Structure formats: C-alpha cells, structure tokens
C-alpha cells in the first residue's frame, strides 16, 4: 500500500512535466534565440569572433538588408540545424534585427521568405559568405570580424 502514494507522486511529477512541456512548445522568438543561438552568438549578440562566430551589434544590418545576405542567413549552420519551423526562424531573425540592428532599414522576415530562401541551393556556405562580404565591403558596408578564410 505504501507504493501507491509513491507511484502517485511519481505520476504527479510526470503530469507536471507534461504540462510544462506543453507550455514550452509555444516558444517566443527570444526564448528560441536563447535556446538555439545564444550558445554561440551569446545572450548579448556579441558572438565569439575568435572562434568564427560573428557579432550582431553594428553588423547584422549589412546582411539582413541585402538580398544575398538574407539568403546567406538561411544557410548558416545554426539556422539549418535549429529544428525550428520557418515561421519560428523568421521570428528569431526579426528578434535579432530588432535587438541588434535597425528595423527601420531591414524588412521583416516572413515564414514564406524563409521557406523560399532555404530552398535555394547554397552548396558552400563559406564560399557564399566570402563572395557576399567582398561585395558588401566594396559597397562600404561594415562587416564583423570573421577569421575563416
């Protein structure tokens, strides 16, 4: 008989976990950023430039306001492997621009745009970035440090 209360307590804890999981499935853009992006780009968006993780403040607009830059952003390994839906990716990118960019010069990302840009083949994301950065720098854009060749 003593096992039933323990079993009930265990089941009760399991039910609480289910309730928490149900609430957690409705993540906000900030929560998704913190969970899936902050490990590399940090909570403050400062990145880890020495490790090849660019910072966002002062630099994200160059990519987010550019057509090819927006495509590049959809093919960054962290975005590709994020397991987020296209709508959630759009929300996180809008959070990044709102937090560390200038939303007045960057069009908001939409789920449809994310779907379209993710479908565009980018076989070598580093080469794509290199080409993009060369053009952006020639146009006078400020680009974050990135130690990869």
TrEMBL record:
Q: Which InterPro entries match?
A: Cyt_c-like_dom, Cyt_c-like_dom_sf
Q: Where is the Cytochrome c domain?
A: 22-100
| Database matches in Gene3D superfamilies | Cytochrome c-like domain
Q: Which residues form the signal peptide?
A: 1-24
Keywords noted in UniProt: Heme, Iron, Metal-binding, Signal
Q: What is this protein called?
A: Mono/diheme cytochrome c family protein
